[in-house]
Protein 1
Amino acid sequence: MPSEFDLIARHFSRPAPNAVLGVGDDAALLAPTPGTELVVSTDMLVVGRHFHAHADPYPLGHKALAVNLSDLAAMGAVPRWATLAVALPEADEAWLADFSRGFFELAERFGVSLVGGDTTRGPLNLCVTIMGEAPAGRALRRSGARPGDGIWVSGDLGGAALAVRYLAGEIGLDAADAALCQERLHRPEPRVVLGDMLCCVAHAAIDISDGLLADLGHILEASGVGAEIEFDRLPAHPVVALKRADPLVRRCLLAGGDDYELCFTVPKERDRIMQAVAETAGVPLAKIGHVTAEAGLRLLDGQGREMAVVERGFDHFAA
Ligand code: ADP
Ligand code: MG
């Protein structure tokens, strides 16, 4: 049986060039860049809730970090360090090797150092804390949206939620479409470069983890404003776009979770730089509507008629 220390040494100890001191001591030592604020967030993936016990560990390593990187991107912060707490039912070396490969591939892509964590026996549970930095006073909060701001969304929406419905047997998809949607569910791409750029462009931002309507709703509530968005402008995942007429698929687009795209508001006069932002960040950006002084979220169809909003999103404590 490998000891806890063998497992840590083999799977989770890598050079941490960003840190004064990384894995191996009682704590890590980090030196944030002068003039920045430390931005910290934690996200946990629980077996049976967020993934299946037999989920492939390689994409799981990616996703455990990706969902955390997404939170930092939504703050307009640059990620730098992470810690990882894992509970494992058994010391499965092959599982750990694949998991850590997925984790480190993404970490290295964005210059994030794993600087510590905890490893214990228990029901499979993965908890990442991400730390990064934003110029002091400039991090993007949910409360910054102003009437007149454009509302923007990165990438496309609904693919991950459609994969969830497909896996639950609620909708049929051909093999190629199912694979496309599952790629979104299992390997979300955190919008790290976009988040960094939005720091000096956007007024408010959030990452879409619980569905567009729910997450945009958080911005509106925190900012004390409302919004008008146009259904036809929502950027749909290609498979979602094909099946848009199906009410279940529309719900995936509006209220499906797990997209990990960014939703953000930008003052109108900055519209003309958004094309350049999209090109530099390497992700399409869609303007889906605008912020209103009047509270409430209005969803409009192609003729400007108000559409009923059925389901707000995903509540973690709902049955
Ligand atoms: P302590 O008993 O002082 O908490 P541990 O034995 O838990 O120390 O951990 C030893 C070292 O390994 C620490 O630096 C800790 O941060 C690191 N570590 C433990 N588990 C992980 C992990 N899953 N990923 C990264 N570092 C880890
Ligand atoms: Mg410990």
Protein 2
Amino acid sequence: MIDAPGTFSNAAAAGEAMHALATELYPICRSITGNGVRETLRRLQAYIPLTVHEVPSGTQVFDWTVPREWNITDAYVKNSAGVRVIDFSECNLHVLGYSVPVRARMSLAELRPHLITLPEQADAIPYRTSYYNETWGFCLTHKQLASLPEDDYEVCIDSSLTDGHLTYGECYLQGDATEEVLISAHVCHPSLANDNLSGIVVATFLIRHLLTVPRRYSYRFLFVPGTIGSITWLALNEAHLSRIRHGLVLANVGDAGALTYKKSRHGNADVDRAALNTLRSSGNEYDVRPFTPYGYDERQFCSPGINLPVGCISRTPHGEFPEYHTSRDDLAFLKPGALGDSLAFCLAVLRVLEGNRVYVNQNPKCEPHLGRRGLYRGFGGSMDSKAREMALLWTLNLADGQHSLLDISDQSGIPYDTVKVAADALLEHGLLKE
Ligand code: ZN
């Protein structure tokens, strides 16, 4: 069974360990294809049993085609004195993602159309890509651009764009049932911490925890490049999608902001209700958003022809923090405490889904005599007797074969964990049956 919130005492330690893993992965230059993703997945294999899949360029996946593979070894702009004034080896965000190779000399005026800055954040390097429009470019701080004099510049992007593969990772954990919970994180961003590494490390530590506990559901974790990766996986696995009962996308789960849950397209799927129920009883600030066809891979999982019950967990949503898609989304922006809290939240949601069942009261004609059975005492530890009694009464009353434990918690306003403890006690005394 997945730990109850009070007993998940390792959240803080897990937060530090997740931050350390993010630190290890941070320097790698990832993109939607290429060796950066391979290297990232290879390192994750030291932590979790991860299968790496390679899908050839040119593979048709629904309306999309797996692109050519992009790799890069070096890139720079040198001034006439031979000094690198823009240097990929200093920060991989300096190169526009998927830049085609270039070797040329040019004036500042010729170079300028290929330079991308963020005037409103003059100290930040923007993160930009051009996957489907062949071009090249450099990203730099606005300050850096302002300091570039007219000169004869040497421009080099030592990249390759060739037929190769799209690489993704998959981790399947067999449970008692063949029904699955799908959890995905995107792995396609270079040195950005909250946007991609936070989801990767929380998913990795979720797997590590799930490996140690009995599981009702089977779990399938995907580490995929955003958009094209989930589209590819869905296209190649369409025959198996009916097994997926619940799903979550993890993105931006490591900043200091409060938790945000974005509902699935269903809006009221069990995963949506489990997430809301958990947030409500957390006592912390949180935000809930309706589904929108924008964001991360929930866009694909919740497209009308796929329509899986997949929600998205974030802290501050994408685009709503100034560090988003800039060099300021760095390891200092990623908070160990927030990572630990996000992991604990994911586990709490999974615990609801794992334990949520429908029971039938075996003594439905008037209340059973609870005192005689000793049911007012001795469960739940810190729970006070009134809360315990209310949980028992609500559970007995709504256990009519129509209401799940989550329904009982939602309807009574009693935290799910309290209802679960009450149901387990009633079950033990033969007062409930599944
Ligand atoms: Zn992003």
Protein 3
Amino acid sequence: MKIYDSLQQVINLKGAAYLVLIDPDKTEEIKLGKFVSFCEKNGVDGFLIGGSLLTNGDLSGTINIVKKNSSLPVIIFPGAVNQVVPNADAILFISLISGRNAEQLIGKHVFAAPIIKKYNIEPISTGYILVESGNVTTAGYMSGSIPVPRNKPEIAASTALAAEYLGMKLIYLEAGSGADISVPEEMIKLVTETCSVPVIVGGGIKDADTARSKVKAGAKIIVTGNYFENQNNWEKIKEFAQAVHIKESIKV
Ligand code: 1GP
């Protein structure tokens, strides 16, 4: 089954899917192996791997460790063309639709597409919308683009709808890794009411209640990264997964 379809299946079954972002710059082998198997046992549905800027991380090596220690889907979340590597299951084929820089809308993709084809990894076309989040994030800085103002949900919704009409299969509402404040619920609500493809929400989510309120607002995939880079927080993974899997808690 394609990874996109398996995500849809999780969404149908559990109400929403929970993905954990792994930054190859911030991992060490033994800890990462333990972490991913712990994630799998505690309800995580898959991993995103990559980042807006990798300085010394080994993306391929990181994916190998993740695959050795878990059977969950591994999806590249690329910040640059050199993050297209062969050993992942899929790649978010991201177009920065909140920006107006042709390179990030289509230019880099021309370089990446033949490599993705050669490696035979599944591209998942994703409209990426940066949302103002209090501070300048790496994603915002590196892309040199102005994020959508937090109090302008109609801009995000129109952008997402345009992406859907262009054939994109996911929308990613991104506050940025380590954001001070996460994507506002009002924006998630309007975007998810306006377009029909699944909406990912990530950036600055630091507790399970916040994750649940994003799902209640309409998010179909929640991503957290930074919070679980601190091992002291690992005990909360199950709580996050349960908060995201809104259908399961209703059943109980
Ligand atoms: C960043 O959305 C992800 O691209 C996750 O953000 O690291 O803030 O959880 P955090």
Protein 4
Amino acid sequence: MSRFRFTVGPWNVNEGLDAFGPAVRPTIALEEKFRKFSEIGISAVQFHDDDAVPNINDLSSDEIIEEARKVRLLLDRYGLEAEFVAPRLWMDPHTADGGFTSNSKEDRDFAMWRAFRSVDIARQLRAKNIVLWLAREGTLCAESKNPVENVKRLIEAVNSILDYDPDIRVLIEPKPNEPIDRSFCPTAGHVMAIAAASKDPDRVGCVLESAHAILAGLDPADEMAFCLSFGKLGSVHLNDQNGLRYDQDKAFGVESIRSAFNQIKVLCDNGYGKNGEYVGLDVKCMRTQKPGEDYQHIINSMRMVEIMEEKVDRFDNEYCRKCVEERNYEKLELYIMELLTH
Ligand code: XUL
Ligand code: MN
């Protein structure tokens, strides 16, 4: 039994399409996903604005609120909470050049409209957080945007969301690249700086995703630790990644057990979850998986978290302290290897 409460998004169960091939599994209705999430032990759901309210661009603000209310009732039916709402600022033609940092004023206004509607939806779902995965906030052609001006625009966008709702928290999910080449906010350090520069730093934090940290050439556990030291780890997206390639969103721990252990250790050691934080699993199902077996990657990830919690609980702090005192880190390393392989 895990000490954590888990969350996933509807996009974590998909039809298997990738950049090179179409869907191979039938679409599963939102309600059926909720039912299954609840059955496998998920506590809360993460949403993009249009996961909760499809065709959001065609609806008025009031209609959007009305649709969101229906989703709240559906969550209630399965005993689920909502963790966050994230404006999807990368699909619409208005966001081809980014949202908050597009060179077009009209597109930037569209991004803010989606961000405000996301807050409206979050209120209805009783979600406390807006997540900004800044998908296209950066450049494909480095010279196409003014980087100084655009970092300021990111801070202004965060401030506008904070102004719009005095209770909402903004969690930025950094990623160094993909779909853009160079992000204006690639790492947890950048998120901490934006939070500090915002008008209400206490309401701005980070969602740290394992794969995104690896893509930045950084250690996910250390990135989590960095946020924790500022009291700003609002959520995590646990998953795994085989080196520097496309964002793979593999099940947690399937590539590096030591890295998985260190991520869970830093969360456990610092009481993560005690202030209501969830453990998000941003994992993608393999395209080869059969319909009906397409929650296995989520089940596997939860199991890997549990296994690593057991290792953390068995971790001999006294032995570690002695190794450190003797400055025999080689001895400590063997201890870790034995712990992780037995
Ligand atoms: C993209 C990613 C997103 C965010 C939510 O890499 O991780 O799914 O987690 O917008
Ligand atoms: Mn993510």
